[in-house]
């Protein structure tokens, strides 16, 4: 594994900053200015790894394309103070990074994901050269059952109104914690004192996910249906808008590349629905968190890996025994 600094320089000096070829699906995306110069350097390096165009960079940072080009040029001569999370993907290892936003992670059904938030999205880079990456929305949505209806506690984009939309409460923007290499964590406390904690870490050649809910209310939380979505737009060879290349075998959903016998596999324990939206296209392995009494914490565990071979059924069977292990503490 190359050091983070060497990889940062390689990316900034690489030709991936193309002026043309901007993504046409960038409407209704979210831009976030960098909080300081260190964060700006981090996100510019991150976006280079994601092969963002200057237009994409501008959308992600909330600046014009001309301003983005200026920032990119300046970054070529500036060394970052801390780039622990930047690695060169496609070198035989799975790599995870926060998705930088700006460029929409879907191909289609964009009306169902307006202004996608980046703090739920993890890019998992394939171990193959030029393999691209899958963006996992972790979580995409959190539903629970009240006495008389199903209520949306959280949504990682604008589409269906959440409980907070209905009461005109705006949730703050957050960012992934990047304290470890190839590990990300985030905790969001909702206005009703319910905490959502997400952990993702590269372990044993795959990515382990852990999602927990801590109930700070005075009432039991039930019907905690979570949507976990893996978007395939930028995973090379997996981006066809169809479900014909997919296998849905709860607790796993898997997709096969059009270029051979390569697979990407996403799964969660307590899965109540494995499915895919062909228009996005995406994979879902949606779990239900166990009912959570006041003061309790309940969690589910997930897994993402890449597989080469024809025996996908055998691979899924083997993964059932090893995939859903705890990640650790945030």
Structure description:
With 330 residues, this protein is an alpha+beta fold. Helices cover 16% and strands 33% of the residues. The protein has 2 domains: 4-88, no CATH class; 119-319, Beta-galactosidase, Chain A, domain 5, CATH 2.70.98. The chain has an 8-stranded antiparallel sheet. Strands 1, 2, 3, 4, 9, 13 and 14 form a 7-stranded antiparallel sheet that branches. The longest helix has 13 residues, at 37-49. It is globular, with a radius of gyration of 19 Å. Mean pLDDT is 89; it is low at 1-25 and 81-85.
Give the helices and strands, then pairings:
Elements: H1 4-12, H2 37-49, H3 54-61, H4 65-75, E1 95-98, E2 121-125, E3 133-145, E4 150-155, H5 163-166, E5 177-180, E6 183-189, E7 194-203, E8 206-215, E9 222-231, E10 246-249, E11 252-256, E12 262-268, E13 271-275, E14 282-289, E15 297-308, H6 312-319
Antiparallel strand pairs: 1-2, 2-3, 3-4, 3-9, 5-6, 6-7, 7-8, 8-15, 9-14, 10-11, 11-12, 12-15, 13-14
Helix pairs in contact: 3-4
């Amino acid at each position: 594994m190359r050091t983070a600094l060497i990889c940062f320089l390689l990316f900034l000096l690489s030709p991936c900053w193309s002026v043309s070829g901007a993504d046409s699906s960038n409407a209704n995306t979210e831009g976030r200015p960098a909080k300081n110069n260190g964060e700006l350097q981090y996100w510019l390096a991150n976006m280079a790894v994601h092969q963002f165009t200057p237009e994409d960079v501008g959308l992600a940072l909330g600046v014009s394309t001309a301003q983005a080009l200026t920032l990119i040029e300046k970054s070529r001569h500036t060394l970052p103070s801390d780039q622990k999370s930047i690695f060169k993907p496609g070198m035989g290892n799975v790599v995870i990074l926060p998705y930088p936003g700006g460029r929409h992670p879907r191909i289609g059904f964009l009306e169902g994901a307006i202004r996608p938030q980046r703090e739920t999205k993890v890019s998992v880079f394939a171990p193959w050269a030029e393999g691209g990456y899958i963006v996992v929305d972790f979580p995409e949505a959190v539903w629970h059952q009240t006495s008389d209806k199903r209520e949306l506690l959280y949504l990682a984009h604008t589409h269906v109104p959440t409980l907070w939309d209905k009461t005109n409460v705006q949730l703050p923007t957050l960012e992934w914690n990047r304290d470890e290499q190839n590990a990300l964590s985030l905790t969001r406390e909702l206005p009703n004192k319910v905490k959502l904690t997400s952990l993702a870490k590269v372990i044993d050649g795959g990515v382990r996910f852990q999602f927990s809910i801590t109930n700070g209310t005075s009432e039991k939380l039930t019907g905690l249906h979570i949507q976990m979505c893996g978007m395939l737009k930028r995973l090379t060879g997996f981006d066809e808008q169809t479900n014909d290349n997919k296998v849905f075998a709860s607790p796993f959903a898997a997709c096969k590349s059009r270029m051979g016998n390569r697979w990407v596999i996403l799964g969660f324990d307590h899965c109540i629905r494995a499915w895919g939206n062909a228009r996005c296209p995406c994979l879902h392995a949606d779990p239900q968190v166990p009912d959570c009494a006041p003061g309790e914490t309940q969690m589910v565990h997930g897994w993402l890996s890449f597989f080469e071979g024809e025996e996908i059924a055998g691979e899924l069977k083997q993964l059932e025994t090893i995939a859903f292990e705890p990640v650790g503490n945030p």
